[in-house]
Amino acid sequence: GRMAREAALWLLLLFSAHLLLRRASAIDRGQFPPPTSFLFGTSTSAYQIEGGYLEGKKGLSNWDVYTHKQGTIEDGSNGDIAADHYHRYMEDIELMHSLGVNSYRFSIAWTRILPRGRFGHVNPDGVAFYNAIINALLHKGIQPFVTIFHYDIPHELEERYGGWLSPEIQKDFGYFAEVCFKMFGDRVKFWVTMNQPNLLAKFAYMNGWFPPGHCSKPYGNCAFGNSSIEPYIVGHNMILSHANAVSIYRNNYQETQGGYIGIAVAARWYEPLRNTTVDQLAVERAISFNVPWFLDPIILGDYPAEMRKILGPTLPEFTLKQKKKLHATKLDFIGLNHYSTWYLKDCIFSSCEMDPMDGDARALSLAERDGVPIGKQVNIRLLNTNSCY
Ligand SMILES: *[C@@H]1O[C@H](CO)[C@@H](O)[C@H](O)[C@H]1NC(C)=O
Ligand SMILES: *[C@@H]1O[C@H](CO)[C@@H](O)[C@H](O)[C@H]1NC(C)=O
């Protein structure tokens, strides 16, 4: 916890020094619209910062169980304490205030509010914790921007029906979202239903990196899973869960609470490695398997044609009723988390090793073309340890 905090401060200092050195070309607040119409923020996720994993009558999450299982995390570390935000949130809010930000995106730990999902009670200690954060933020003039789901689900849902693999989760997600609207919606005006579900479906069910650690060859060597089908089943249940939450908000809360609801997706971008038709088509495919995988159904009511063409019946279908629901819910805003752009090489007509990050798009992403990097190199070590996936 302390180390993460010091690393964050160190980064901040570094950034400030960088600005001082480059004063002439530095970006400043004045170049952006006024704070009344433009939010500048910081962002976190519950499991990565809170700690206090058994405090406040919290239930066990999929991450608690996964990181405690011998062999899943190389160095044996876990989020039991993390950045100790559970105890130090006031200090953290002071830090944000000192930065001059006017918004803060954070996620709500499902297991603090509903330790056993919809199979148990609403936990007053969990509600009190987020009430304290929301009230302190508003007191400092910082808009709470709340992510309802950022990868952590009650372990009980994993045990009962296999978590995101089951359509049952749509009910649980709707129930959780509704409790959030009911408890916090009088003060929270910005809701993100899910953070990067398009990345999570791959990390958890294609590559086996995130809980529940499912995968199959050639993507990885896991005890359970099927990398060819599970990511798409999970994605389908996530899309319908999202629609469920939006529909509940639209029908019962938005009019009286006057807030906005959207989703945040991981938005990789691609440039063709070579100026050839095959690489250009590979780019179309890889893009489809990223953002449109989720946003096409949510906005247009069905998956992209490029995905259907490759996956056929492996890609689930939406019923007419579900399409209608998707069509009726729409979005108030779209959140894009962008890390980097890659050169992309076709792997259908050329022989190459497919990149798991590109899923079934049958392509390989590369950081360089003829030895020249696509952009400035970021610090990989920091990216791996401190990034906010
Ligand atoms: C994954 O599921 C597909 C479709 O049911 C099946 O053909 C394939 O053999 C499965 N792969 C593994 C590794 O179980
Ligand atoms: C790609 O190739 C086309 C046709 O050969 C050419 O007109 C175009 O300028 C090329 N683009 C780049 C970026 O090299």
TrEMBL record:
GO annotation (BP), single: carbohydrate metabolic process
Reactions that this protein is recorded to catalyse: DIBOA beta-D-glucoside + H2O = DIBOA + D-glucose; DIMBOA beta-D-glucoside + H2O = DIMBOA + D-glucose
Annotated PROSITE patterns: GLYCOSYL_HYDROL_F1_2
Keyword Metal-binding: no
Gene3D superfamilies: Glycosidases
Signal peptide: 1-26
Major enzyme class: hydrolase
Primary localisation category: plastid
Keyword line: Chloroplast, Disulfide bond, Glycosidase, Hydrolase, Plastid, Signal, Transit peptide
GO MF entries: beta-glucosidase activity; DIMBOA glucoside beta-D-glucosidase activity
Subcellular location: Plastid, Chloroplast
Enzyme Commission number, as recorded: 3.2.1.182
GO cellular component: a single term: chloroplast
Role according to the record: Acts in defense of young plant parts against pests via the production of hydroxamic acids from hydroxamic acid glucosides. Enzymatic activity is highly correlated with plant growth. The preferred substrate is DIMBOA-beta-D-glucoside.
Subunit structure: Homo- and heterohexamers.
Family named by the database record: Belongs to the glycosyl hydrolase 1 family.
Name of the protein in its database record: 4-hydroxy-7-methoxy-3-oxo-3,4-dihydro-2H-1,4-benzoxazin-2-yl glucosidebeta-D-glucosidase
Organism lineage: Eukaryota, Viridiplantae, Streptophyta, Embryophyta, Tracheophyta
